[in-house]
Amino acid sequence: MEIVILAVVIAVVVIGALGGLVVGSRRKKQLPEPPPTTPDITAPPAEPHVGDEAETPRDETRRTIEEVDLPDGGTATVEEPPVVEELEIPQIEVPEPTAGRLVRLRARLSRSQNALGKGLLTLLSREHLDDDTWEEIEDTLLTADVGVQPTQELVERLRERVKVLGTRTPEELRTLLREELITLVGPDMDREVKTEPATSKPGIVMVVGVNGTGKTTTTGKLARVLVADGRSVVLGAADTFRAAAADQLQTWGERVGAHTVRGPEGGDPASVAFDAVKEGKEMGSDVVLIDTAGRLHAKTGLMDELGKVKRVVEKHAPLDEVLLVLDATTGQNGLIQARVFAEVVNITGIVLTKLDGTAKGGIVVAVQRELGVPVKLIGLGEGADDLAPFEPAAFVDALIGE
Hints:
The chain is of the alpha/beta class. It has 13 helices and eight strands. This is Signal recognition particle receptor FtsY.
């Protein structure tokens, strides 16, 4: 019995010992690892001083200032920001008023044109005026493009008045010649450019002429004259055949604030003219100036096209003015051009350009006689304001000198 009890006690002790070992092993697994006895501590980087880099200094070879390459000039190059181009806004010019334009330009006209007047005065001042002298006077007038019929009329009147006058002082001769030339030019002709219609706005002016006479330039200069007089202007670029004609006219318009109506290059000029008058009415403008193509007078088809432009424009309103631009240096050829244009459109006025060059003043008389219409404007130079109303007395004074 004692042996049994002893065996049971030993079994209990063994079981208890085994249980303690299991519990101890579990506790050991849950406990954290003990910290190291000597932890590694990293020292913070040193604070940077003025001029130091924002990183830990490194051992490297340093160069002196003499060894450092500098840009040319010893200063750093600073790149400038790109310049943004601004859109150019055309500056509106203030043209010179028409009053006194010819007075200002009289000296220029006198320097280039007084050969006619001086030549006549020299011949008339001879002591004896025989037939040979009067023939020289006729030749002088014909050379100046006065024309045969006007020359004969002037010589007859001069011969009669000189015979009655008897003695001829230089002042008397000058007065005599001035009076006769003014009469020949036609002081009573209406030279006003019609831009004010009798019924309603706008006034419609069509400008015609052959290539090279300065037609488009004259249209632009006429716009300046009208703007200077306080009129609002619309330009119609109906010259669609010549390259850059519309650009040229638009530039003239932008300089004085005039609106330009244009169409595609090679387009229908009658359509452009129609639209210009239409827009002129809608905008309430005072005047519409229509620049037509510089047609060669020998091309019948182009002249027919000019007639079409006139008919289309008159669907809006009748034309108030048809100005023919002639180059004063062309002489008799200009008269041929004038005759052909007059057959196609009803010319109401003439503009003589380049009268300050090699032109001969007699063309004024000849073209007026040819067409029966007055010279209304003259171009005396290349300047923007060198277009002036034609004044017979001032013109003659410039021819014969003061």
